[in-house]
Amino acid sequence: MRGVRRTITAWAGTTALVLVGTLTTTGCMGRYVRCGPEGDTPAGLTADDLVGNWRGDPLGRLRLAADGTFTVEDWPVLDDFEKISETTRGVAGKGTWDLEPGFGGDDKDDRNLALDFAGKRPEGLLTQYDIAGDKASLRIYAYSGDPDLCEFHTVTAA
């Protein structure tokens, strides 16, 4: 019986090591962990703080209206975390927007910008964006390229 327990323990330990090694070396965990200089959502962020015109570099123009509608022009389509380049296509669209709880959902100050294209979203177009900075200099961003490299598509107030 003791030999069976040792075999099961060894198998479980080996499986755990393989799983942890795979997740940490392949980057599968990277996209779920905040990284880079973007930082946390500012405390007390409200929808009113986001109303206005935003511009990305090199692509993207976003207008967030107080009535909860938005329009985008030249908005990058980032299929599979594609890095923005001269071949990235930009699209136009419109819909509604709102602030939603961030990834963890427990922190009342962690908010994401959610864009709803009313069922007309081009394939690959991201609809959830993180928000960072302070209220005087907010940044709206999403990963652009390999999340392990912490490259972002960022838009700032225009």
Give a description of the structure.
By secondary structure, this protein is α+β, with helices and mostly antiparallel strands. The chain has 1 helix and 8 strands. It has an 8-stranded antiparallel β-barrel with strand order 1-2-3-4-5-6-7-8. The N and C termini lie far apart (70 Å). About 11% of the residues have low confidence.
Characteristic terms for this protein:
globular, 158 residues, alpha+beta, 8 strands
Summarize the entry for a quick read.
This protein has 158 residues and is an alpha+beta fold.
Beta strand %: 25-35%
Number of strands: 8
Quick check: average pLDDT? Answer: 75
Q: Percent of residues in helical segments?
A: 10-25%
- Determine Rg (CA atoms, Å): 20 Å
The side-by-side strand order for the widest beta sheet comes to 1-2-3-4-5-6-7-8
Quaternary organisation: single chain
Task: Describe the secondary structure blueprint for this structure.
Elements: H1 2-25, E1 52-56, E2 61-64, E3 69-76, E4 90-101, E5 111-116, E6 128-134, E7 137-143, E8 152-157
